[in-house]
Amino acid sequence: MNRLRQMSLFAHIVESGSITAAADGLGLSKSVVSQHLKLLETELGISLLKRTTRRQTLTQAGQAFYAECKKLNDLADFAWQQALESQQEPQGKIVITSSDALMSTLVAPAIGSLMKCYPKLRPELISSDQPLNLMEKQIDLAIRVGASSENALMQRRIGEFRDVLCGTQSVIDNEKENAGYLANQWQPATIIHHFTHCIKIEEKHNYHANITCRADSFHTCLGLIESGAGVGIVPDYIFRQKPQLAALFPDHQLASNPVYALHPYPRQPPINVVTCINAIEKQLSILTTPSCQALKQSEAK
Q1: Would strands 92-98 and 141-145 be described as parallel, antiparallel, or unpaired?
Q2: pLDDT lower than 50: segments of the chain
Q3: Mutual orientation of helices 19-26 and 2-16 as an angle, nearest 10°?
Q4: Tell me: the pLDDT tens digits for 81-99?
Q5: Domain membership of residue 219 as a residue range
């Protein structure tokens, strides 16, 4: 590293016209710059500059050496500028993962809109209900429900939603609590849901169920629910888009699910990551509204 530093300083000395001017331009002392030049000439075993009190000129060996040192500085300046420009506008590859449900309803729409604003952005989206190792899979950003216990990851809470236990209106009217339960792959073997009244928060209700069918993806589970095969949980922002579905307990609600953005960048995350997190956070705020809002409004009246 000292050798590269000495070569860079030598190029600055030549271009500045003197050791003093080079030191001023680099914010170093004259003695430091002079010492590096002396060490460089000693290690090379040649004189690079001929110096008088008024001027300096390159030796023949110095001219050839300077040409190569200048290339070194030019390359460093180019790399520096490229790095700065990469943080000015989202561009290039970014790998994002989330669960199946969040990918299709939240992440993909947000990133799709972002691509229209930044056509140089090249997202790669990975849908998985199993939390993937970001470092092993070279993933830049993960959107997950709940905080992570992985200390190596940076995480930011970007919003929340509530699940709604629901089924078709026919199932709700005719089977109610005896309806079969349709579970997602990630749900536990024993189903217990804890409900709180939307208005009377001291009023609690617990729901127990045995799983009659388990699906390996959210959309498969949703398809089963929509077919009338039983009841299951659906995010509130999707439930509101499904008029054929009805809540099993319309005056009660489940606890909220916090949504987090996780990334492996301990210091300043790339602009691609920051921009995508902001877009997904905005999309989540658009999709979600407080559960039981309509009920609260009717109670207020």
Answers
A1: parallel
A2: 291, 293-301
A3: 110
A4: 877 766 678 999 999 999 9
A5: 160-257
